[in-house]
Amino acid sequence: MKLAILSREPKLYSTTRLVEAAAQRGHEAVVVDHLHCNLVLEKGKPGIIYQGQKLEGIDAIIPRIGASVTFYGCAVVRQFEMMKVRTAVESQAIVRSRDKLRSMQILARAGVGMPKTAFTNYSDDVPEMIQQVGGAPVIIKLLEGTQGLGVVLAESEKAAQSVIEAFHNLKARIIVQEFIAESKGADLRAFVVNGEVVGAMKRQGKEGEFRSNLHRGGSGTLVKLSRAEKAAALLATKALGLGIAGVDMLQSKRGPLVLEVNSSPGLEGIEKSTGLDIAGKIIEYTVELAKKKKSKRTTPQASAAPLPDSQPD
């Protein structure tokens, strides 16, 4: 099989591990910078030009789309989908997961446990919004933030109101969440591939830090998830339609609470914490998708499914 890994950084740990895992299984993996892809739109002949050549012969892709380039990255993934190339993560699922508010609405509808969350576009409603999530202390998050950036812990109602009003004055969109004190600065990352939890770690924030992200200096250790935690991770992943996901959860008195579902989770932390070959699981899943595509090549083109954008949430 010939696989394409959509990544801007071929030397990143996640990218190199996927290339390595593919080679170990007898497959060819090429790294394609999605920002350097030109999309050709023509009736019945969608195409992608990369480095002056038309991309052909790709059996499946593995998107590694950064949050800052979601729009163009997803356009490239959609183009591959139009070309009948299988993708390990569908374009519309990436779009859903990247919008924090939209993804939480979907998760809530699916019955996924999560911290109480509030959103408003009107500063005069701030005191009531803080009370809706249980009062101070509260967590305030930028909707576009990643890797722990744009996340603030406001320990008093006055501080929360000041931060929220400041964000509103900057026209920044935010959500307010209850603070789960019993989590003690730690969370769980469950790595899901093809409807199965293939690895999990507990991430602990450094002393004095309420954010547990490894990019913020946190540490990761192997952990065995409870049945409820596995079920929450799988339900969240299924609700967003993701084939691959990193599900971040807090342990609370009322059970696991999902914070976020990442559609391009990094491999370095989870592999080094667990000692598991997560990259290999991703390659095996992607190859299976490609094999299914090959078995369906006799399907008439006239019966092709609609574009992902037309699929309802």
Describe the protein.
- Mean pLDDT is 88; it is low at 298-308.
- 33% of the residues lie in helices and 26% in strands.
- It folds into three domains: 2-89, Rossmann fold, CATH 3.40.50; 116-179, Dna Ligase, domain 1; 183-263, ATP-grasp fold, B domain (D-amino Acid Aminotransferase, Chain A, domain 1, 2-Layer Sandwich).
- It has nine helices and 16 strands.
- Helix 2 (70-82) packs antiparallel against helix 3.
- It has helices at residues 13-24, 70-82, 91-98, 100-110, 126-132, 157-169, 227-240, 268-274, 278-295; strands spanning 2-6, 28-32, 37-40, 47-50, 53-54, 60-63, 86-87, 117-118, 138-142, 151-154, 174-178, 186-193, 196-204, 219-222, 244-252, 255-262.
- The protein has 313 residues and is α+β, with helices and mostly antiparallel strands.
- It starts with a strand and ends in an 18-residue tail after the last helix.
- The strands form four sheets. A five-stranded antiparallel sheet has the order 14-13-12-15-16, with helices on both faces.
Name the poorly predicted regions. 298-308
CATH topology of the largest domain: Rossmann fold
Order of helices and strands: EHEEEEEHEHHEHEEHEEEEHEEHH
Broad CATH class of the largest domain: Alpha Beta
Question: Main beta sheet: strand number and arrangement?
Answer: 5 strands, antiparallel
Q: Mind telling me which CATH architecture of the largest domain this is?
A: 3-Layer(aba) Sandwich
Number of helices: 9
Strand order of the largest sheet: 14-13-12-15-16
The number of domains is: 3
Question: What spatial form do the alpha-carbon principal axes imply?
Answer: globular
Percentage of residues in strands: 25-35%
